[in-house]
Design brief:
167 residues, alpha+beta, five-stranded antiparallel beta sheet, 4 helices, 5 strands, 40% helix, globular
Length: 167
Amino acid sequence: MSCIAPTAPQPPLPLTPVGVSQEAKYLERRRGQAWQVESPDTRVKARVAETISKILQLHELEEDWDLDGARPIDLVTITVAAAFVFFIGQEVRQEGLSWHAPRVGPATDGSVVLTWERGPRQTMAVFRRSQFPLIVCVTRERDGDSTRQITTGEEAARLVFWTLSGA
């Protein structure tokens, strides 16, 4: 192996070129402002991140985590559920609503269960291990019957917002 060395010492490269640095600073500032300016609840980002962290912790559950044959939750299912929560968080922020964190839990079949409740309304979204991005949603209004449906992410989001608007 051969190596060609420069004949004269080269001046050191600037650590941050002026054009890139100014642009990077501007973009970073705008990204931070987007979360703070557009939402009356400036803690939305942190609260959404906390919910996503709870979902990610479900990956730690091993086979038979309930001592009754429960399946572990695979990373794809966890990722889909976390992405859904991130999407809901963005929409909440853009609409100027306050964040109502869902209850996060595992199901013994290896699913992730997210349950939103607000006032008389409740939506439970079950993210199952599947090759198709479908979500099982169960909705209920106080003193009413439950409705179960298999939905797309878009329809599941609509049902979550139905719950969040039910105060």
